[in-house]
Specification:
mainly alpha, single chain, rod-shaped, 3 helices, about 80 residues
Length: about 80
């Protein structure tokens, strides 16, 4: 018999049980601050306001206003979707 086997204990030591790892996943809807923040107040058009500009400039201004409307609606939808 090998000398290492002679010195080893007759019975093997009990092996500790494998640790139990418990995981838990929690999903939570959270609104980013940018979505939850209130929109700045709309700026009222002054009485008698008139813009004298080329057709191209007026079209550009109209597109900017339309874009602002779309962005406001998207923010409102996002706010409603995350419960803010």
């Amino acid at each position: 018999m090998l000398s290492a086997c002679l010195a080893s204990p007759e019975t093997r030591p009990a092996r500790a049980a494998d640790p139990i790892v418990e995981t838990r996943t929690v999903r939570e809807k959270v609104c980013p601050d940018e979505v939850a923040a209130p929109l700045p107040p709309r700026i009222a058009t002054p009485a008698g306001a008139a813009i004298a500009a080329s057709e191209e400039v007026l079209r550009w201004i109209g597109q900017r206003f339309a874009r602002e409307e779309v962005l406001e609606k998207r923010l409102a939808d996002a706010r409603a979707g995350c419960g803010a």
